[in-house]
Write a structure and sequence with these properties.
CATH topology: Jelly Rolls
Order of helices and strands: EHEEEEEEEEEEEEE
Low-confidence stretches: 3-27
Radius of gyration: 16 Å
Helix content: under 10%
Structural class: mainly beta
Largest sheet: 14 strands, mixed
Number of helices: 1
Oligomer: single chain
């Protein structure tokens, strides 16, 4: 299971943070707040002061089927005043199956839609399956789910960054930006409270959020921070 890394391991974590996130300091709402996850060894750490809201919650963590590596799901509550969440990924071997699933519903499990845990229109989703990135729209019902972006990636020994905000998603480098301010087809993180208020983002690493049977291998490290 994941645990908090002891201080003697922090220099290594910070070195990895600098390698992955030299540009991460631009985050304005809580500079220096981040969670680092070593998926090869099942370690996690929060670097810097405590999160302004609750720290990330590990919904589920266990070994993958590809050696000692781990798979996990995080629930991150975005504080008011923050735009959203940044997720930085570092890949080792050639990835296969699901290595990333980001959504705003606890029942996202890949391919779009959810099991009705949130009101209609609050179930956008992005996944990496093998080396294919797909973005699925929020939907009023399962029949309305659209795959609005599909992109082939080259991830072996590579790194990738995501920015998730209200009705927006960006990924790269270089960053590709997608926004739906009028259609409201992406993630639901309004700057002012909207009933029912939901500022939770779920992040599945080496698995989907809700289905442990949809696992993957190849993701080695991840960082999560507020934007």
């Amino acid at each position: 299971m994941f645990h908090r890394i002891t201080p003697r391991l922090l220099p290594a974590c910070l070195a990895i943070a600098l390698f992955l996130g030299a540009g991460a300091a631009h985050a304005q709402c809580a500079p220096g707040h981040l969670a680092y996850l070593d998926l090869a060894y099942g370690a996690a750490v929060v670097i810097g002061p405590e999160f302004p809201a609750q720290p990330p919650v590990f919904v589920a963590s266990s070994h993958t089927e590809c050696g000692p590596a781990f798979k996990t799901v995080l629930k991150v509550t975005v504080p008011q005043g923050c735009h959203g969440v940044e997720v930085w990924l570092d890949y080792a071997s050639e990835p296969h199956d699901w290595t990333l699933n980001i959504g705003d519903s606890a029942t996202n499990n890949g391919y779009g839609g959810d099991a009705g845990t949130l009101p209609a229109g609050q179930n956008a989703e992005v996944q990496i399956l093998n080396q294919q990135l797909t973005v699925y729209s929020a939907a009023d019902n399962p029949a309305d789910v659209d795959a609005i972006v599909s992109e082939s990636l080259a991830l072996t020994q590579g790194a990738l960054r995501f920015e998730v905000g209200d009705q927006s998603l960006a990924w790269g480098q270089p960053l590709t930006a997608l926004e739906t301010p009028d259609l409201h087809r992406l993630f639901f993180l309004p700057s002012t409270p909207v009933a029912p208020e939901n500022r939770d983002i779920y992040i599945g690493l080496n698995r989907t959020i809700a289905s442990p049977g949809r696992d993957g291998c190849g993701l080695r490290r991840a960082m999560v921070m507020f934007d």
